[in-house]
Design a protein that fits this description.
Belongs to the alanine racemase family. It comes from Desulfosoma caldarium. The chain is an alpha/beta fold. About 30% of the residues lie in helices and about 25% in strands. The protein binds pyridoxal-5'-phosphate (PLP).
């Protein structure tokens, strides 16, 4: 067994998938966003579990991620959300990927590659309705469609856009984006361009903007058990999927006046029992939680004292007399009745749960647990 490891609760993942379906109803398809190694949770095992649970589509950022899914036997349609590179066109066709398309040169390359293979390229046309990142600006839609009209081997399977503020309480801007999106869809209809899926909803919209659901939603963070922000009160109960655990390496008494760790940022004001544990910022635990974070030992919250270093953290376990070397410590997750959430860590580190999951999920020791808590 490793000195620290990440546990992935596949039963919780399935539960969260069912909650997405509950929120959107049975007539709306779900695209499970598994990019960035499923937000650190492990793309292949996560995608396999979600495929079993009934995910209709998968979403990745880059073509190579989609190829990994295909090699792992995932047959569902895969949308490549950041789009393709020029050299990816033959691969896109060969593996039946759905790139987000927002560039005419990519459209032309796909058309050529599809014609060459005797197939049709299925694309998801990305529109910029206000995020200002990727996408054809809605005001430039007509000239883009004019140019696309001659490409006979390209089929628009989906049209989509991304909401910038779906995770905020104030929905004014989301509604503006949705109005622009609807206007653009109408212009496609007016040109008799047919498509199967219009999609704009991320987790924030799944949870909080029912009118954004449409035929397909793209759910990411809620699958992993977190609401997209603290401004969103989830109408469904989500279960956290990831836990970060480690062991106590050493326990010792340190006299009053002694300092702990780099920079001597913590000085004991009383005789203190210090437990040193085998996690550090190399494991994705934020250094910003030096003297701020907490861990669970014997089901009790204990403070991190001193700096979080690369591979070690020091805890004050004075009030947990039973704490001993080799005892399990939880930095993210549940022990007994106590729980430390990614939101809690993120808030203290001035970031978002997404970043915490991605960083901690890089841990090479990942254990996938089934519904009985055993290794999957
Ligand atoms: C285009 C797109 N759609 C959907 C999502 C999923 O968002 P969330 O994790 O907030 O559900 C993302 C995530 O970044 C995205 O980039």
């Amino acid at each position: 067994m490793a000195l620290n490891w990440v546990e992935i609760d596949l039963a919780a993942l399935r539960h969260n998938f069912a909650q997405v379906q509950h929120c959107v109803g049975s007539r709306t398809a779900i695209l499970a966003v598994v990019k960035s190694d499923a937000y650190g949770h492990g793309m292949i095992p996560v995608a396999r579990e979600l495929a079993k649970a009934g995910a209709h589509f998968f979403g990745v950022s880059k073509c190579w991620e989609a190829l990994k899914l295909r090699s792992a036997g995932i047959r569902q349609p895969i949308v490549v959300l950041a789009g393709m590179e020029a050299e990816d066109a033959p691969t896109v066709i060969a593996y039946d990927l759905r790139p987000a398309v927002y560039r005419l040169d990519h459209c032309r390359l796909l058309d050529e590659a599809a014609q060459h293979a005797g197939k049709v390229a299925r694309i998801h046309l990305k529109l910029d309705t206000g995020m200002g990142r990727l996408g054809v600006p809605v005001r430039d839609l007509e000239p883009f469609l004019d140019q696309m009209a001659s490409l006979k081997h390209v089929h628009v399977e989906g049209v989509f856009s991304h909401l910038a503020t779906a995770d905020e309480a104030d929905k004014t801007f989301s509604k503006e984006q949705m109005a622009r999106f609807r206007g653009a869809l109408q212009r496609l209809h007016d040109r008799s361009i047919t498509f199967e899926y219009a999609h704009i909803a991320n987790s924030g919209a799944v949870l909080d903007i029912p009118e954004a659901h449409g035929q397909l939603v793209r759910a990411g963070i809620m699958l992993y058990g977190s609401p997209p922000s603290e401004d969103i009160q989830s109408p469904v109960h989500l279960r956290p999927v990831m836990a970060l655990k480690t062991k106590i390496l050493q326990v010792k008494w340190v006299p009053s006046g002694h300092s702990i760790g780099y920079g001597r940022t913590f000085v004991c004001s009383r005789p203190t029992r210090i437990a040193t544990i085998a996690v550090g910022y190399d494991d994705g635990y934020p250094r910003a939680l030096s003297n701020r974070g907490e861990a669970l030992v014997h089901g009790v919250r204990v403070p991190i004292v001193g700096r979080v270093s690369m591979n070690l953290i020091t805890l004050d376990v004075t009030h947990v007399p039973g704490a001993a070397p080799d005892d399990e410590v939880v930095l993210l997750g549940t022990q007994g009745t106590e729980r430390i959430s990614a939101e809690e860590i993120a808030q203290k580190a001035h970031t978002i749960s997404y970043e915490i999951y991605c960083a901690i999920g890089k841990n090479p020791q990942r254990l996938f647990l089934n519904s009985s808590g055993h290794l999957a």
